[in-house]
């Protein structure tokens, strides 16, 4: 049974430049800050950055891995507070994801608070999901 305070199994995802290319193709977001180092640094970024929605999708994966059902999402939102910088090397960028059940509601749903970190710092703010819990 799920209870407030329960922690979701953590998830670590390593993003590489190839992941950004694949995501750009799937999302049709070809903004050069996600692949062109020269342009990314010219606009003030430290380097190429991951798509914000890709980062948010990874945080959603944390919850779907826990529930086993992507269709259980009722509501999901987050703010982008810091970019995930993806170097052009074999290590890539490590995104660390954790979650905690904030509350279980009488209607069979639960609110999950999600933390997404890169380089020890939060990259998403106010990341929360409301999900339908499995019956039984």
Automatic annotation (TrEMBL):
<dbReference type="InterPro" id="IPR002539">
    <property type="entry name" value="MaoC-like_dom"/>
</dbReference>
<comment type="similarity">
    <text>Belongs to the enoyl-CoA hydratase/isomerase family.</text>
</comment>
<protein>
    <submittedName>
        <fullName>Acyl dehydratase</fullName>
    </submittedName>
</protein>
<dbReference type="Pfam" id="PF01575">
    <property type="entry name" value="MaoC_dehydratas"/>
</dbReference>
<dbReference type="InterPro" id="IPR029069">
    <property type="entry name" value="HotDog_dom_sf"/>
</dbReference>
<feature type="domain" description="MaoC-like">
    <location>
        <begin position="11"/>
        <end position="114"/>
    </location>
</feature>
């Amino acid at each position: 049974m799920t209870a407030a305070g329960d922690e979701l199994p953590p998830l670590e995802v390593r993003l590489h430049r190839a992941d950004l290319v694949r995501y750009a193709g799937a999302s049709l977001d070809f903004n050069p800050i996600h692949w062109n180092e020269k342009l990314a640094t010219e606009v003030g970024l430290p380097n190429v950055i991951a798509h914000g929605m890709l980062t948010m999708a990874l945080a959603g994966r944390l919850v779907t891995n826990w529930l086993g059902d992507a269709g259980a999402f009722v509501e999901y939102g987050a703010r982008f507070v810091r970019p995930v910088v993806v170097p052009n090397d074999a290590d890539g960028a490590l995104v660390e994801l954790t979650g905690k059940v904030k509350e279980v509601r009488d209607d069979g749903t639960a609110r999950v608070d999600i933390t997404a970190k890169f380089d020890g710092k939060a990259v998403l703010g106010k990341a929360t999901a409301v999900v339908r819990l499995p019956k039984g």
